[in-house]
Amino acid sequence: MHPAHRRNRLPRRYRRRPHDTATVSVAGADIVVVGFFSAREPDYATRMDDAASAVATLGGRVVATFTQRRGVSAGGARLMARPFSPRTLFSAGKVGEIAAACAELAADAVVVVNQLTPHQRAVLTEAFGRSTISLAEM
């Protein structure tokens, strides 16, 4: 008897793909630092400065920083702790703004202050056209 083979019957677009788990070397690289923060977090600027310092400590050069804040406007206050998009964490406009800056500044990588899921990391890497990692992965 042949062992039963279990075929994946899902259409190809729904099958899970392994996400890129390669590490990014920060040393000597031009880095864009990005963070997503709730309006309830008053010390977001300190966290961004700490992230830039961590990149500099590892030998990277911060060429730009971007901050996405949620809940600053009256409409966003009720959704403060939720990301703009579960796919990217950021709004579509902010993703486009960061991608344009990466291309203009010829950045080598993007470091996100927040924790990213593997899927968010893969989507942001594709959107920015640069390797994207979270600060915890450095």
* Beginning-to-end CA distance, first to last residue: 50 Å
Average of per-residue pLDDT values: 83
Helix/strand/pairing class, anyone? alpha/beta
Shape: globular
In short:
The protein has 138 residues and is an alpha/beta fold. It has three helices and four strands, in the order βαβαβαβ.
Provide an overview of this structure.
- It is a single chain.
- The protein has three helices and four strands; from the N terminus they run E-H-E-H-E-H-E.
- Helix content is about 30%, strand content about 20%.
- Strands 2-1-3-4 form a four-stranded parallel β-sheet, sandwiched between helices.
- The mean pLDDT is about 85.
- The protein has about 140 residues and is α/β, with parallel strands linked by helices.
- The chain has helices spanning about 45-55, 90-105, 120-130, and strands at about 30-40, 60-70, 110, 130-135.
